[in-house]
Amino acid sequence: MPNRIDTSLIYRALILTGLVAFGFYLAADRGLVSLALNSDRSYISWVILGVYVLASCHWLWSSLHLTRERRRFSELEEARIQGDQTASVEDGLLGEFFARLESKSDDNADALLSAFGDELANRHAIGHFVGDVLLKLGLLGTVVGFILMLLPVGEIEDFDPSVMQRLLSSMSGGMAVALYTTIAGLVTSTLLKLQYHVVETSSADLVTRLQVFVDTQPQDHRDGAKGINADAS
To answer: Could you count the other beta carbons within 10 Å of the beta carbon of residue 96?
Structure first.
């Protein structure tokens, strides 16, 4: 049961990735993606899409890494439940945490738990930064679009119908840049923050479970482990 629970993170990540990919497929099938990209003369929408794809790959990597950490901890919990008090974790951040915990001279693990939580959070903290960057790129596209829309206004010298028609065509192109880059920034920023929220929730749950695990471990076992380390040194 614990393994099934802990591997659900990568499953949720893959399901969410599939839903996002399906949404983009529907938009591309209706020509919305090509329309947005081809209408953007500033190419900011291309940059937004590329950054989002790279950030999503990093999110998948973070999800896989956190799934492995949760699986290691689940196996440790299962071993302790079955009575194997010598079971331990040697790999990953959990291995480093338990190595530091056994070498501590006191039983207060709050500082180590806080450091462990910070290390987990730092692995996906870039997601918030990239999400804000995507939103800012969308706003930058809005400004650039309005500039492109207003530039032809300075070229008006008379109200000749042919000139006005060319002017309106240029202004509509600038408006397209403003609207499509804004939409691209809003959509990708919202999706990316949702994706990293899934990882953050899972990492917070792991820290909580680790806190309970450390607080409920038998005192004599931890003292025995410290004694063994002392004798070995």
So the answer is: 16
Instruction: Determine contact, residues 140/48, Cβ cutoff 8 Å.
Output: no
Q: How far apart are CA 179 and CA 105, in angstroms?
A: 61
Give 187's contacts (C-beta < 8 A, 6+ positions apart): none
Q: Is 10 helix (H, G, I), strand (E, B) or coil?
A: helix
* Distances in whole angstroms, Cα of residue 222 to Cα of each of 207, 217, 227: 19, 8, 9
User: Could you tell me the pTM of the whole model?
Assistant: 0.80
Report the pLDDT value the prediction gives residue 113, as an integer from 0 to 100: 84
For the chain, residues with pLDDT lower than 70 are: 1-7, 84-87, 105-108, 152-166, 218-233
Task: Give the whole-angstrom CA distance, residue 135 versus residue 190.
Answer: 9
Closest-CA residue to 97 (of 86, 112, 84):
112
Question: How far apart are alpha carbons 140 and 181 in whole angstroms?
Answer: 8
Answer for the pair 76, 88: CB distance below 8 angstroms, yes or no: yes
Measured N-to-C along each axis, helices 161-215 and 110-124 cross at an angle, to the nearest 10 degrees, of 160
Is the CB of residue 118 less than 8 Å from the CB of residue 186? no
Q: What's the pLDDT score for residue 8?
A: 79
Task: Quote the CA–CA distance of 122 and 160 in Å, as a whole number.
Answer: 61
Distance of CA 162 to the CA centre of its chain: 51
Q: How far apart are CA 55 and CA 57, in angstroms?
A: 5
- Please give the structure tokens belonging to residue 132: 């804000």
